[in-house]
Amino acid sequence: MTTIRAYAANEPNAPLQSFTYELGELGPEEVDIDVIACGVCHSDLSMVNNDWGLTAFPLVPGHEVIGTVAAKGASVEHLAVGQKIGLGWFSKSCLHCRPCLDGDHNLCDSREHTIVGRHGGFAEKVRAHWSWAIPVPDSLDVTSAGPLFCGGITVFNPIMQSGVKPTDRVGVIGIGGLGHLALQFLNKWGCEVTAFSSTQAKAREAREFGAHHVVNSRDDTELEKIAGSLDFLLVTVNVPLNWQLYLNTLRAKGTFHVVGAVPEPMAISAFDLLFFQRSVTGTPLGSPATMTAMLEFCARHEIAPMIETFPMSKVNDAFEHLEAGKARYRIVLENDFA
């Protein structure tokens, strides 16, 4: 038995407290990870607050882990102790269902989540199945790479799944933790990129991240001016907007893709789908293969999230900063367990 030090919430909406738990015997296909740093995602906050009804307390959040292999099971041959790896939202797939056999491990019929029913990365160690322990290129910074394993893959996967082309005109709604990465990916993909934001102060940064154009996301007149101009539109926000006007920014056969957890139904016209053969789609993160491709793409093009760091012992301060909407643009906790 190994005693793990961590930070956990003991009830909904409660501050995190020091917590220890026993890590049982390592399975033959499992990997233990020494945590170097772990990103703070809004999903961690949602789990702490039990917004989705999925939380088992005590809960150790954290699913944007960067660390090194501390130990590996007897069947794990492709990873070496001390190797740099990352772990995201998923921690296990069955490897034998139809989605897994198709390479879509993130759609596995019995996939397991790093912080649902198990303890996550706000700790000195975390455990996962080898299939989700993804090697990290040496050129990527260990502190800033963690958010790629949730925020990054969430917006990179749609680019591949939707067949976005370098010649496409694309739009990103919301320039936050997800959107600022999407702008970088799509710019380096070769696209002409439009950023939609309600915060004019973000316009300059949006252009620095890769946007060629910036549009006020709540100005209907501006949206009407660009009707029929985009091939692909990525929705990263979780707030209601005038979805019909956004749908109409798409050309014929354009794709309206959702990765933000919008809390209410999105009103759009069936006729504007039918007459222009538009598609409305969504994706949950990405497979291990797609995550590997994303990391290689980031290394090649020097893409990284903009981060703010906190010691892991200041996790409650980090949550307050996130909840106040002050994060620019992702928060990372650095392991400071003595």
Topology:
Elements: E1 2-8, E2 17-23, E3 30-40, H1 42-48, E4 65-72, E5 84-87, E6 90-92, H2 98-101, E7 112-113, E8 125-129, E9 134-135, H3 151-161, E10 169-173, H4 179-189, E11 192-197, H5 203-209, E12 213-216, H6 220-225, E13 230-235, H7 243-247, E14 250-258, H8 270-274, E15 279-282, H9 288-301, E16 307-311, H10 315-323, E17 330-334
Parallel strand pairs: 10-11, 10-13, 11-12, 13-14, 14-15, 16-17
Antiparallel strand pairs: 1-2, 3-4, 3-8, 3-17, 4-5, 5-9, 6-7
Helix pairs in contact: 3-4
Describe the structure.
By secondary structure, the chain is of the alpha/beta class. It has 2 domains: 2-150 and 287-293 and 305-334, Quinone Oxidoreductase, Chain A, domain 1 (Alpha-Beta Complex); 152-282, Rossmann fold (3-Layer(aba) Sandwich). The protein is built from 10 helices and 17 strands. Strands 3, 4, 5, 8, 9, 16 and 17 form a 7-stranded mixed sheet that branches. It has a 6-stranded parallel sheet with strand order 12-11-10-13-14-15. A two-stranded antiparallel ribbon has the order 1-2. Strand 16 (307-311), helix 10 and strand 17 form a beta-alpha-beta unit.
* Rounded mean pLDDT score: 96
Query: Which fold name is given in CATH as the topology of the largest domain?
Result: Quinone Oxidoreductase, Chain A, domain 1
- How many distinct domains? 2
| Share of residues in helices | 10-25%
CATH class designation of the largest domain: Alpha Beta
Count helical runs: 10
Low-confidence stretches: none
- Which outline best applies? globular
Under the CATH scheme, the architecture of the largest domain is: Alpha-Beta Complex
CATH homologous superfamily (4th level) name of the largest domain: Medium-chain alcohol dehydrogenases, catalytic domain
Q: State which percent range the strand residues make up.
A: 25-35%
- Could you give the count of β-strands? 17
User: Radius of gyration in whole Å, from Cα?
Assistant: 20 Å
Q: Report the end-to-end length measured between terminal Cα atoms.
A: 20 Å
